[in-house]
Amino acid sequence: MLVPESEEGRVETITAALLYLMTHYARTGCPRLATCISRHMQCLALHPDSSPVMRDICASLHGAWREAGGAALPPKGGSLH
After folding, report:
1. CA gap 54, 3 in Å, rounded
2. Using CA atoms, how far apart are residues 44 and 38, in angstroms rounded to an integer?
């Protein structure tokens, strides 16, 4: 039986995914990954269980990553993958 993930665990999962995406972006420079990174940062910036430092850092970096992924934005209604 699956147990729902706690909100605190969700923050850790999003952070781990963010680190994974950033590592692969460093290798490839793929703008689609930059868009995913921006979205993960936005999630952490808005998540009530993120630490204040994490929220502030992610909120300030979100825009830079969004710009890096600007060319990769899918058409309305499209998906990244």
Report:
1. 26
2. 10
Tally of residues, the chain: 81
Long-range CB contacts for residues 16-20, cutoff 8 Å, separation at least 24: 18/44
**pLDDT, tens digit, 9 for 90 and up, residues 24-41:** 999 999 999 999 999 999
Which two structure tokens, joined as six digits, stand for 74? 């899918």
pLDDT at 23: 97
Entry pTM = 0.76
Q: 68, 4, 52: which is closest to 44 by C-alpha?
A: 52
Residue 74 has pLDDT above 70, yes or no: no
Q: How far apart are CA 62 and CA 77, in angstroms?
A: 22
Q: Do residues 80 and 74 make contact, with C-beta atoms less than 8 angstroms apart?
A: yes
